[in-house]
Design goal:
This protein is mainly beta. The protein contains five helices and 49 strands.
Length: about 725
């Protein structure tokens, strides 16, 4: 018997080509072609490290056998433990009894009685898998057989049964999941639900990712008592400077549901497009330009609001509105100049026909950036734009604007006060085309010209005063604008006395000029800093108008941001109308956050004069309360809730209460939600539906999870 400190098996190196096999051990003996190592032996081969109480290698059969506390490590990604393991170096066939493998990147482990592997494929006998503590797992999935591919990082389980605290919850004849975050095609976690009016809900997402620059997700759904549909998302990264997404959806109602709910449409469909490009002139047209260019597309269209409501089982996540705005913005900018093109398209969901809605298709804008002369005492910039106001049915217009301010500025009293004078010259041109609305004449729609010159004098200062660790900064400002010369011609001359604010005459749709008036504006900003950190900001402003306008005083505005303590913040906006002697706008928000308790209360109030259905100006006010809170009881339990209440309508828009239990390997949540959402019906375009939900969320980390909900729907 020989005693070895180091043994290198050259024969295995030859058999495995470039792979080198090394065996280390304090003691070893040989018996014919078999070499056996003892004393914490270690073997390295390929990218694996194998340790055991006893290792033996047969030169003739190229078989390695390991016994007692066998461990295999691979690339620091997974660790296999067994009592007995056999490896054929020629075929890379491996067998382990029993078999326990843990993925160090995800914490997921699998335990079976036996495994048989060859190259990257591992076949497993009956066992279990979990991401929890292996001694007493909170959840586990038992299976009758399984297989795992170490190259594709994909596990397949057959006859899978989910247990939580030894309680069987779910069965699937087959369940497959990835063990890494590589993008790959396949089925995603489904969503289940039940509703008193819509029946059983099932949505099965299908993920398609054949290439690394694009992917797609298909989300077919069925609502057994309502209908079925399909939503699809296509996402792409076409260049290093651009990316985008396209969503489209279609849902068809059952006839009985349409009749029962009095819906306006049997089919709901629409699309959304988003795209960004930060160098489209350079990459699309091959231009070698100085500066930068950009393109932004955000477009949506739908036949009614249920296109949004039906995208998932949780309508509380859908942002519903009566107005859909689509935009396309493109620009080029360098150190001196800016060129922009903007298109805006409005779709109102509470009207049947949008053919009379004015669209901006497009606005072309040129801006010359601020230039300084004579040691920053003379400032100059220019801005001009052309806008095409378009609609399929009705009069259309093209309007051009130019604005050129010239500013002289200096410091007074040893630069304690900043003083400036600005001469602002501006002008407009407008021309009309298209057809007039029924019963109207083309005569009033003559082209128009307008020009003005205003003069603004401004004084301002920044005063700083320290008080120990507190610093106070006050910045007062006063400005007086003198309404200078005005020139009116054509359309602007004919209607500048008639088209006042609030006039709904169709002839005033394109008239946006305000009457000339001198304006005095005063304001003061206050800042408090505690040890260099800002704790309070208060901005107060007031304007006074002199001339032929209705309002002598504009609204008094105040904005306050106050960090009362490390945990408490307060925000307020208040507007006071002097003519009406009342507050016309107020926003109050108080937030508390100490990392254990988080809570906020907000109130939004507006009171504005608008035209009512009889054409008279009337007061319309809104009052909206919202509150939310959460309590982190410990590192496992979190309780949360929220309320949203429309005081004017006396309507609870949304309420929610729930809890979330989180472990390293599991999230379990339960919440009750009531939500009021708009729908489009034949009876009332602004009808609404009140939904009550019970949501159950179960996330098995790191595999994933799903949410089940039950919904009760009532028409308001």
């Amino acid at each position: 018997m020989g005693k070895w400190i180091f043994i290198s098996l050259i024969t295995c190196s030859l058999l495995l080509g470039e792979d080198r096999v090394e065996l280390f051990g304090l003691n070893a003996d040989t018996n014919g072609s078999v070499v056996t190592a003892y004393g914490n032996p270690v073997m390295t081969y390929q990218d694996k490290i194998l340790t055991a109480e006893r290792l033996s290698y047969d030169r003739n059969s190229s078989i390695v056998e390991a016994e007692g506390n066998v461990s295999v490590f691979q690339k620091a990604t997974y660790h296999v433990i067994s009592d007995y393991s056999k490896v054929n170096m020629d075929t890379d066939a491996r067998q382990s009894k029993p078999f326990y493998m843990i993925d160090h990147q995800t914490g997921l482990w699998v335990s079976t009685a036996q495994s048989d592997a060859c190259e990257s494929q591992i076949d497993l006998s009956s066992g279990m898998v979990s991401g929890c503590n292996s001694t007493d797992p909170l959840w586990k999935i038992r299976f009758s057989s399984a297989d795992y591919n170490t190259d594709k990082m994909w596990m397949n389980l057959y006859n899978a049964r989910l247990y939580v605290e030894n309680i069987p919850l779910f069965y699937l004849p087959y369940f497959g999941y990835p063990t890494d975050k590589t993008r790959r095609s396949g089925l995603l976690i489904p969503t289940f639900g039940a509703s008193s009016s819509e029946g059983f809900y099932y949505q099965q997402p299908i993920y398609i990712a054949p290439q690394n620059w694009w992917d797609a997700e298909l989300r077919p759904q069925i609502r057994t008592s309502r209908g079925s549909g399909l939503y699809a998302d296509f996402r792409f990264v076409d260049t290093a400077s651009s990316s985008g997404s396209i969503r489209a959806g279609y849902f068809k109602e059952q006839a009985a549901y349409v009749f029962e709910q009095d819906l306006a449409h049997v089919k709901h469909y629409g699309y959304d497009i988003n795209y960004r490009h930060t160098a489209f002139l350079e990459e699309w047209f091959g231009l070698n330009i100085e500066g930068e260019s950009g393109l932004y597309v955000n477009g949506s269209w739908m036949n009614d609001v249920d296109y949004l409501n039906l995208q998932g089982s949780d309508e509380t996540k859908s942002v519903t509105t009566s107005q859909i705005l689509s935009r396309i913005n493109a620009y080029y900018s360098n150190e001196d100049d800016y060129l922009g093109m903007y298109l805006k398209h409005y779709q109102y969901l509470d009207v049947v026909d949008n053919s009379k809605t004015i669209q901006i298709l497009p606005t072309l804008n040129y801006h010359h950036y601020l230039e300084n002369f004579f040691g920053d005492h003379l400032l100059f910039n220019a801005d001009t734009s052309v806008t095409n106001f378009y609609r399929p049915n009705g009069k259309r217009a093209v309007e051009g604007n130019v604005n050129i301010p010239l500013t002289l500025q200096t410091g007074l009293f040893d630069n304690t006060i900043d003083a400036s004078y600005t001469a602002n010259a501006s002008g407009r041109l407008i021309g009309f085309y298209g057809n007039v609305q029924s019963g109207e004449s083309n005569d009033p729609y003559e082209s128009g010209e307008y020009a003005q010159v205003d003069h603004t004098f401004k004084l301002g200062a920044n005063l700083v005063k320290p008080y120990g660790t507190t610093t106070h900064v006050i910045a007062p400002e006063i400005a007086y604008t003198l309404a200078g010369s005005r020139y009116y011609n054509g359309y602007y001359d004919r209607y500048h006395d008639e088209c006042t604010v609030g006039n709904t005459d169709p002839l005033c749709e394109f008239y946006t000029l305000q009457g000339p008036s001198d304006t005095l504006s005063v304001g003061v900003n206050n800042y408090l800093f505690e040890k260099g950190k800002q704790t309070l900001v208060d901005r107060l402003s007031q304007s006074f108008r002199y001339g032929g306008t209705e309002n002598y005083y504009s609204e008094l505005m105040n904005e306050l941001e106050w960090k009362i303590t490390q945990a408490v913040n307060y925000y307020n906006v208040t507007a006071f109308n002097h003519d009406r002697s009342r507050i016309t706008k107020e926003i109050n928000t108080v937030r508390y956050n100490d990392n254990i308790v988080m809570a906020s209360v907000s109130h939004y109030y507006t009171d504005a004069l608008r035209m009512n259905k009889t054409g008279e100006r009337a007061a319309f006010y809104s009052s909206y309360w919202s509150a939310d809170a959460s309590y982190q009881y410990n590192r496992h339990y979190r309780i949360f809730g929220l309320l949203a209440y429309d005081y004017r309508e006396d309507l609870m828009k949304r309420s929610e209460i729930g809890f979330m239990y989180s472990q390293r390997c599991l999230d379990f949540g339960l919440r009750f939600v009531q939500n009021n959402r708009p729908v489009l019906t034949n009876a009332n375009a602004s009808d609404s539906v009140n939904d009550s939900y019970v949501f159950i969320t179960l996330i098995l980390k790191p595999i994933g999870g799903s949410a089940f909900n039950y919904k009760i729907t009532n028409h308001q």
